[in-house]
Amino acid sequence: MFIRNYPLAKATSLGVGGPADYFARPATEAELISALQFAEQHDLNVIVLGYGTNVLVRSAGIRGLVIQMADNFAHVQVDGTTITASAGCLFSAVSKLAAYHRLTGLEFAVGIPGGIGGAVFMNAGAYDGEIGPLVRRVHFATAAGPGSWTRDEFSYSYRHSRVQQEKIVVTRVELELRPGSREEILAKMNDLQARRRARQPLEFPSAGSTFKRPAGHYVGPMIEQAGLKGFRIGGAEVSTKHAGFIINRGGATADDVLQLIQHIQREIKQRFNVDLEPEIRILGSL
Ligand SMILES: Cc1cc2nc3c(=O)[nH]c(=O)nc-3n(C[C@H](O)[C@H](O)[C@H](O)COP(=O)(O)OP(=O)(O)OC[C@H]3O[C@@H](n4cnc5c(N)ncnc54)[C@H](O)[C@@H]3O)c2cc1C
After folding, report:
1. From atom 49 of ligand 1, which residue's Cα is the shortest distance away?
2. What pLDDT, on a 0 to 100 scale, did the predictor assign at position 190?
3. pLDDT at 211
4. Domains of the chain with CATH codes
5. What contacts 217, CB < 8 A, 6 or more positions away?
6. How do residues 97-142 score in pLDDT, each as one tens digit?
């Protein structure tokens, strides 16, 4: 059930980072729970990964067990205006499925890479939409077994959700949508995808927006005004297309990316007196 010393660079969109001591890809809830029980019995730290599109794994890798919830854990069901999607369903694919079923509310998700589990953890969103308000129930697993939160028990805010506070693995999510016109839904999705292609450096590996948006400021323009567009450390570069993204120009290491993050934080603090908080989740041992 476990792979030893799994290279996590293969499991993240940035393509950097060291190995996981143990790596598991459960296909069922029962397999997931037994992996969590194994970790508990052996006192192993557990880290969950979806598609790794919002993480930076440090060069030393992760001591403990990494559980991947991706295409190994992806079932979806549509029932009236409710879509129930397993954690490993691609968020973008679920939004397209909603359009097919004439359900509106998920248009913003088209083009957001990664899975539903990661989206719920991050309260992923774009263009004035976010997943939080659509959640009807979150199902999860711990070593003690399965559980769930109702809409009222699941709290969220900008790029934050209750999942970040609790040691749980999201297994599936029920999303409540509204009936809509397929033509209007698809027109909105096409518009949002075109905007993404025009603004984001999708041709290079990245982990999306590096930093959270600080109240009253826009990250990309601040980094640009600080003269950092195109600034490189090793193979990590501040994108010349969108300064809010750090891209892997080829051969970047996790240390390159981390040093670039810290350099940007220092420059922005000095110039604008603003503290930039990473949106990217930085995982692993020092
Ligand atoms: C080009 C690009 C564009 C992007 N655009 C956007 C955007 O517009 N809006 C936006 O919000 N994000 C964006 N992102 C970031 C990212 O795609 C989203 O945050 C996505 O929802 C993360 O999903 P994932 O499966 O890749 O999660 P991962 O990156 O694998 O994990 C993210 C976090 O969630 C946790 N996690 C993952 N799955 C589970 C689970 N099943 N249970 C418990 N915890 C879990 C992980 O431990 C980690 O801390 C972008 C990324 C890229 C590369």
Report:
1. 281
2. 98
3. 98
4. 3-71 (3.30.43.10), 74-185 (3.30.465.10), 201-283 (3.90.78.10)
5. 272, 274
6. 999 999 999 999 999 999 999 999 999 999 999 999 999 999 999 9
3 state DSSP class of 279? coil
Any residues with CB less than 8 A from the CB of 213 and at least 6 apart, and which?
158, 219
Q: Sign of dihedral through CA atoms 200, 277, 189, 174?
A: positive
275-286 pLDDT per residue, tens: 999 999 999 988
Residues with CB under 6 A from ligand 1: 13, 47-55, 69, 87, 91, 112-115, 117-119, 121-122, 124-126, 163, 169-170, 200, 202, 206-208, 281
Ligand 1 centroid–CA 221 distance in Å is: 23
**Considering Cα of 164, then 165, then 169, then 171, what sign does the dihedral take?**
negative
Active site residues: 159, 209, 279
**Amino acid making up residue 165:** Q
Which residue's C-alpha comes closest to atom 50 of ligand 1? 208
Å from CA of 73 to ligand 1 middle:
16
Which atom from ligand 1 is nearest to the alpha carbon of 205?
53
What residue's CA is closest to ligand 1, atom 8?
Answer: 126
Distance, CA of 274 to CA of 286 (rounded, Å): 26
Ligand 1 centroid to residue 2 C-alpha, Å = 23
Check pLDDT > 90 for residue 203. Answer: yes
Count of C-beta atoms within a 10 Å radius of residue 197: 11
Q: How far apart are CA 208 and CA 119, in angstroms?
A: 13
Q: What is the mean pLDDT of the chain?
A: 97
Q: Which helix (H) or strand (E) holds 201?
A: none
Q: Report the distance separating Cα 92 and Cα 8, nearest Å.
A: 23
